[in-house]
UniProtKB/TrEMBL annotation:
<keyword id="KW-0675">Receptor</keyword>
<feature type="transmembrane region" description="Helical">
    <location>
        <begin position="24"/>
        <end position="48"/>
    </location>
</feature>
<feature type="domain" description="G-protein coupled receptors family 1 profile">
    <location>
        <begin position="39"/>
        <end position="285"/>
    </location>
</feature>
<keyword id="KW-1003">Cell membrane</keyword>
<keyword id="KW-0812">Transmembrane</keyword>
<protein>
    <recommendedName>
        <fullName>Olfactory receptor</fullName>
    </recommendedName>
</protein>
<keyword id="KW-0807">Transducer</keyword>
<keyword id="KW-0716">Sensory transduction</keyword>
<feature type="transmembrane region" description="Helical">
    <location>
        <begin position="191"/>
        <end position="214"/>
    </location>
</feature>
<keyword id="KW-0472">Membrane</keyword>
<feature type="transmembrane region" description="Helical">
    <location>
        <begin position="60"/>
        <end position="80"/>
    </location>
</feature>
<feature type="transmembrane region" description="Helical">
    <location>
        <begin position="138"/>
        <end position="162"/>
    </location>
</feature>
<keyword id="KW-0552">Olfaction</keyword>
<keyword id="KW-0297">G-protein coupled receptor</keyword>
<dbReference type="GO" id="GO:0005886">
    <property type="term" value="C:plasma membrane"/>
</dbReference>
<feature type="transmembrane region" description="Helical">
    <location>
        <begin position="234"/>
        <end position="257"/>
    </location>
</feature>
<comment type="similarity">
    <text>Belongs to the G-protein coupled receptor 1 family.</text>
</comment>
Amino acid sequence: MEPRNNVTEFILLGLTQSLQGQKILFAVFLLIYIVTMVGNLLIVMTVVMSSTLDAPMYFFLGYLSFMDAVYSTTLTPNMIIDLLYKKKTISFQACMTQLFIGHLFGAAEVFLLVIMAYDRYVAICKPLHYMTIMNQRVCILLLLLAWVGGVMHAGVHILFVYNLPFCGPNVMDHFICDMYPLLKLACTDTYVIGLSVIANDGAICMVIFLLLLISYGVILNSLKNLSQEGRRKALSTCGSHITVVVFFFVPCIFMYVRPPTTLPIDKSLTVFYTVITPMLNPLIYTLRNADMKNAMKKLWTRNIISFSRDC
């Protein structure tokens, strides 16, 4: 399957044309990326190595951090490197790869957040049957479904975009390859494809966001049956989940639940959910979760003691 166009690369305008602004953004985004990778990989290592974090919630949390790390690595390093150059280019094939991987991990994370909400519902509303319902086989199956959903979502985008004719301008007013900026450059009528983006991205964001709000509403309503300590712990866990959901879905809804067009604010919103949100997720989950913080302290203390003995 060969693309029907004579464009071999796209020129990205980036976030700013100011050289001084690019230098500042380079330092800021490099620091954010380092914090993102350290925070998410630390959570993954803690979940894998700690024997106290064997509950399904931490299994899913570990994969959420893994997805955030890969998702951020797909987009952020290229953006950081581009800030060092006046002319920013990306090949057609690299653009399609970035589009596919970005939407794959973005959609998989959306479905994983639904799974995590279901996990909290079972844990709080059906505590006596929790380990029976959320056994290891079910957890792995749910995780596979999240990946399958991500592949299907990203695959639809590639099927629509890959064979579009790009025969004219190749300057994209963005810093990554995304659907609406690409459709704007295609030399054909893309109205129907634009509607498919709303149906694919917009519907997923809106419907799942509403389902998550309803599910957490049910969970919070059921807290009255718990003890004061159980209520406090459940509120802390659900609070962190709801925070992540709001940070992830609000920009997504604004971006895709609207007529297919590009707006000046799009780049700022894209920065938020591609760069900022993956950094905030580990901070939100670790700062509000006592078990995670204790497991990290024990893990690091054990490693420091072991290192001291070896020396």
